[in-house]
Amino acid sequence: MLSMSRRKVGGWFNRSLPFWLILPTILVLLVTQVYPGIYTIWLSLQARQPTGWTFVGGNNYKRLFDMGQFGESVGHTVVFLVGFVVVTLVVGFLFALLLNRKLYFSGLYITLLYIPWVIADIIAGLVWRLLVVPDYGLLSGITQNPLFFPPNGLSILTAVPPRPWLGAFPFPPAPAMIYLIMASAWRALPFITLLLLAAMQTVPSEIVESSRIDGARGWQVVRFILLPLMLPTLVVALFSLTLSGMNGVGMIFSLTNGGPGTSTEVLSYLLYSIGWTQREFGRAAALAMLIAVVNWLLILGTLRVSRVEERGA
């Protein structure tokens, strides 16, 4: 009897061992992910009153949509994401093409390429801000020179946005937004370049050589050979850049602080402004839920593309 009971205990322990091994991870996820998510949902349905929190249903969402600042921030987010994604993908692809040519000291170039990736967003934003600070910025002598930017030069961080071409949609963007796109693309360039380089190096060299024998040259090889074979990776890079651009706030905080005016105030910075400047935590939670929905859609899209790539392989 004693041996049978020991077997039962030992069998139960062996069957439940995987659960006990992953239990610490489950607890960490519950504390850092599940509980904050549930609390944010609850907070988005509440309003702070002198007597405490009061349930207001969807009123926080209605107030958010009624804000003119919200619609303006959506436009700024679209402009920022399009510019950021296009610039990063194009420049990253060109850099990947160069590094794929087996250059001398290519290992050194890849190491130097990592420098922007290891710098924190706040520090990178401060560095780019110092470059164009009037009077002593490294680039201020160029940007404030009337010969390059007539008639009176250009102060990037304080220049008034041009008159919109499409109603209230903020295009063309303010100089500060263009500068922010450049800085953000520089920060994300290492990861995208190495991702595209890895995908480029998986393309069989026999296919490229065969296409060249058949008469394909230069851009034709890129267009008809590399791009189709790299398409799943390009789509994943597109989703990854959109996801990071949608949620990044450190670069904006340290570089433009949402200005001049509200010309660089994207949704992630508006969330910070509503929550920590205005102390409207219910409305901030409602905006956080909207951004979370967009994030979930982007993640699901990335997973779907990854599965299609695995089936194709």
CATH topology of the largest domain: MetI-like fold
Compute the number of structural domains. Answer: 2
Tell me the helix content: over 70%
> How many H/I helical runs?
13
N-to-C terminal Cα separation, in Å?
Answer: 55 Å
Uncertain parts: none
Overall morphology: globular
What is the CATH level 1 assignment of the largest domain?
Mainly Alpha
Which CATH architecture of the largest domain would you pick? Orthogonal Bundle
Mean residue pLDDT:
86
Order of strands across the main sheet: 1-2
Looking at CATH, the homologous superfamily of the largest domain is MetI-like
Radius of gyration: 25 Å
Beta-strand residue percentage: under 5%
Structural class: mainly alpha
What's the short version?
With 313 residues, the chain is mostly helical. It has helices at 2-44, 59-66, 68-99, 106-113, 115-118, 121-131, 140-143, 175-201, 205-213, 219-247, 250-255, 267-277, 281-312; strands at residues 46-49, 52-55.
Write up what this structure looks like:
The chain is mainly α. It has two domains: 17-57, no CATH class; 59-312, MetI-like (MetI-like fold, Orthogonal Bundle). It is built from 13 helices and two strands, in the order αββαααααααααααα. The protein has helices at 2-44, 59-66, 68-99, 106-113, 115-118, 121-131, 140-143, 175-201, 205-213, 219-247, 250-255, 267-277, 281-312, and strands spanning 46-49, 52-55. It has a two-stranded antiparallel ribbon. Strand 1 and strand 2 form a beta hairpin. Helix 3 runs antiparallel to helix 10 (219-247) and helix 10 (219-247) runs antiparallel to helix 13. The longest helix is centred in the first third of the chain and has 43 residues, at 2-44. The protein is globular and about 75 Å long. The protein starts with a helix and ends with a helix. The model has no long low-confidence stretch (mean pLDDT 86).
